[in-house]
Amino acid sequence: MLFSLVGLHLRLLGKLRLLTGAKEFIKDYPAAEIARRALKGRDAIYPFGTLTEYGTAVLGSTVTLPRYPRFPSLDTTIILLPPAFTPKRLDKMVDLLREPTFEDVNLECELGGFKVAMPVVAGTMGSTAIASKTSIPIAKACAKMGIIYGIGENVATVRGYSKRLTRGHPCFKERLMTYLTNIDKYGGVIIQQSVEDAYDELWNKVYSDKDVEPYLDEGRIGFEIKIGQGAKPGLGGIIKIPREQIEKLKQKYLIEDTGKEKFVTRYSVPGTYTEDILRGMIRNMRTNYPRVRIWIKLGPFKDAMKVIKIAFEEGAHAVVIDGKEGGTAMAPCVAMQHLGYPTLVSLSFIRRARMLGIDNKLSLLPAGRLYDGSHVVKSLALGASGIYMGRPLVISALVKGEQGVVNYLESVKIETQMLISALGKYDVHEVEPDDVASLDLNIARALDIKWAFELAQQDI
Amino acid sequence: MPLHPAVRELESMVADKERYRKFLQEWLRYSWRWARDDKYKLVFRIQASILHAIREKLDSMGFVEVLPPIIGPVTDPGIRGAKQVTFDFYGHEYKVMSSAILYKQYMAASLEKIYFVSPNIRLEPLDSIYTGRHLVEFFQVDLEMYNATYHDAMKVAEELFCYVVKYVKDVHGRELEDKLKRSLPDFKPPFPRYTYKDAHKILCTELNCKFEYGTEIPWECEKVLSTHHDTPVFVTDYPRGARGFYDREDPTRPGILLDFDMLYPEGFGEAISGAEREYEPAKVIQRMRETGEDPNKYRWYLEMLKELYPLRTAGFGIGVERFTRYICGLRGVWESRPYPKVAGIAPTP
Q1: ipTM
Q2: For residue A260, what are the domain limits?
Q3: A204 contact residues in B (CB cutoff 8 A)
Q4: Which of A127, A446, B28, B112 has its CA 20 to 30 A from that of A187?
C-alpha cells in the first residue's frame, strides 16, 4: 500500500516534470523580449508597454535578476564605457559638417569573407521541424537585411536536396535559393555538411550546381565545418523523424526505434577530428572549392585555441565558438547542463587569440544567447568580428513571419548603432577593448580589460 | 618551349566567356558534323594508335591489362570538387567510377603489374569548361605495381610517354605535320624533376609566378613551369592536404606525400598523376576524415587493406583525351574524342 502510494506520487511528479520543458524555456530564455521586438521593430528598443506609455513611465536600469544566474554572462558582468570626451565624434562632425547622430554609425564590414550590412549572422540551423518551418521567412529577412544566412546539417539528407522529401518542409535548395535570389550587395550563405551529408557529397553537389554557379562566382557561398555546438558539444545532431522515413535514412543514421511511438529518434554522429584531420580538411577544401569561404563551427571545447590557430594558419575565413547557452531543438538535458563552458568563456578565447596576433584575416564569432545590440558591441569590443545567432530569428519568425525577423533585426541594428555612437565612435571597426569593463575583478583580469572599479583610479 | 598556338587560341577564346560557351554548345550539340572532317578523322586514328602503343609498351614491360570496374559502392573521392554519379543499386547507393584507383590496388595484389583502360565519369564544377582539360566522360590508362615506389612509377611514365610519341611519329609523322601542323621532338628520359618545394621556390622567385605554399600549383604557374622546359617535367612530393587519401605520406618527412604529377610541355598542362599508396589502415582512416566522410562507406577497401597488409603499391593514371590533345596539338579535350561532354552543357549526342 505504502509503496503504491509512493509510486503514484513519484509518477505524478514525473508527469509534472514533463511540462517544465516549455515552461523553463519561456521563463529562462528571453523569448518574450524577442517576440516584442519581432512585433514592434525599431520601437521595441524602448521599454514602453501598454501600462507604461511614454509620458507616464519613470524608468531606470534593472538591478535585480529574476533568478540567480548559474554562470556569468555578458549581461551580468560586462559593461560598456561611454566617455564624456569624444574626439572621434568631432572627426565625424568635420566629415559631415553637422553633429552626427547614431544613424551615422557605419555597421558595414567584412565578415568571414563576405561583405555584410551588419556584423550579425543567422547561424546554421538544421533539419529539425521548427528550424525547417521557419527557414524560408528567415532566409528572406536575412537577405533583405544584408546579413549572412546559414543552412545547417542534415537538411539535404532529411528534407531533400532539390525535391521535398517531407511534406510541408522546404528542401535544401528552397532555403538556399530563397536567400540567394533575394540578396543585393551584402551577404552570403554558409552551408554545413554532416558526416551523413558528406555521404551524399552535399558540398560537391552545391559546387557543381548550375543554379548556384553565378553565386559561387560572386563569392557568396561558404561551407561550414561543424566540429560541435554549444548545447551538445561532442554529440552529433539529434532529431525526431516520423516513422515512415526510417527506411530511407537507416543506411546513413543511427536510429532508435522503440517500435511504439509515431516518431523515432535519429542520431547523427559527431564526426572525428584531430589537429591533422582539420588541417587536411581545410587544405582539401581550399583545393576542391577555391571559390568558397571556409567557416568552422565549434562547441565550447577546451582546445578551441588550437582550432583558431590551425584555421588561421590554413587560411580559413571564420571560426564560431558556441557557448553552452547555444540553442538547439533537441539535446540531452545533461549535455546542456554540464558539457562545456558559457559564452563569456568563448569570448575569452577570442580576446586571447586577438592578443596573440590572430588578426582580422580570420573572423571570430561567439554564439550562445546573444540577441541584442549590447551583445554585438560588447563582443566586438572583446575582439569578435560579429555575433552568431539562431533562436531569436526562429522566435521572431514564429511571431510574425518574415516581417517579424526584419523587425527584430532592425531593433538589433539600431541598438548597435546607438551604443557605438554613445561610445563616441561612428564605425563598427573602431570598437575596442577599452570600450568595456568588467564588474568582476577576476573576469576583468581574465579578459585583460579594465575592472570597472579601477576606472576611478586616474590621476587628475 | 613557348606556348603552343592551340593553347594560345583557347586562351583568346575563353576571354569572352559568353561567346566561348555558345561555341561549345554548338560544338557538342552537333559533334557528328566535325567528327567527319579530315582533321578529326586523323585525330581519332591517332588516338587509336596512342592506345595501341600504350598497350604494346606496357605489355612488353610485363603489365597485364585487366577489365576495369564501372560501378561500385565507392569511388575515387579525390577529384577536386567534382561530383560523383550516384544511383540506386537494389536499395544501396552505388557510384559510377570517377576513377578505378581503389580497384587497381585490389588487382595489383593479384597480378602485381596491371593496367586498366578505364572509363570515368566526373560531374565537374561549371567553371571547368574554361580549362580545355576537363571532360565529364573520359578515359584513362590507370596502372599499378605491387611493391614499387613512386620513383619506379615515374620511370614507367617517362618511358611510356617517349615510346608513344615515337610510335605516333613513326606511324603518322607526315600526316601529323601536313594536316595538324604538329611537329613533335624526340624525347629522351629522364625528364626534369622538381619537388613541390623547389617548384614553389623557383616559380615564386625566378619565374615570378607567386602562389601560397601548401596549395595546388595554380594553372598559370603550371603553364610557366611547362613553357620553361622543352620536355615534360615532374613535380613530386606534394604537401599533404591537397590530394586524395591514397597518396602515401612519407613516414620520414611528415606532411610530404610520395606522389607526383607530370606536366606536358608547351602549356598543355597536367598529363599524369601518380603516387605510392598509403597502406596503413589507421592513416587511411584519418585521411578519409579530411573529406568529412564516415570511413564506413569505404569498408570493403579498408578490410582489404587490413587483410592484405602491407599492400604496398604505386602507380599513376594518364588521361587518354589529354594525351591525344597534346600529341595532336588541339585547343581543348573537347576536340580529342567523339561525343564529348563537358560540365553543364546539354543536350548532346
Answers
A1: 0.83
A2: 104-435
A3: 81-84, 123
A4: A127
